[in-house]
Amino acid sequence: MSTVLITKDNTGKLAGFGEKGERAYGRFLAAVKKMEQGELLSFSYKVPRSPKFHRLHFVMLDALFEAQEQFADDYQFRKWAEVGAGHCDFVPGPTGRMVALARSIDYESLDDAEFSDMHDAVKAFFKSTHASHFLWPHLPDAEGAEMVRVILVEFEPEWA
User: Fold this and answer.
1) Partner of 77 for a Cys bridge, out of 30, 71, 92, 152, CB 3.0 to 4.6 A?
2) How far apart are CA 45 and CA 4, in angstroms?
3) pLDDT of residue 158
4) Cα atoms in the 13 Å half-sphere on the side-chain side of 63
């Protein structure tokens, strides 16, 4: 599959990004021009992930990690949150029972919209009674939910 990086040039027109991108964009335009009636051409696109939003997600995870009482390793905590959010695949484990494996959240795997959906699902998971009870097992459910609310209010202004 070909990859074409495009940008808007200083005249507001679409153009290939860089020398390689210009060549790839030219090939794409040529393929479009050569199309005959009824012929199909398929393409996919990604909106690059916002580095600012990416950092915000990890700042939120760090805040929750620092407050919780179950995990000593932030990577394991993050993967637990991603599985809890449903960003995982279920595969047979060593004994045959199904186990959840978190999917990658790297820049190649998720564009900005997909990352935003995963971020929202992680927040929703943290708001669940299951998550708050697990993270603070000695607290009553209402107090665990309040712990999550106090931490997430910084990342969800509508909670303020």
Assistant:
1) 71
2) 9
3) 53
4) 17
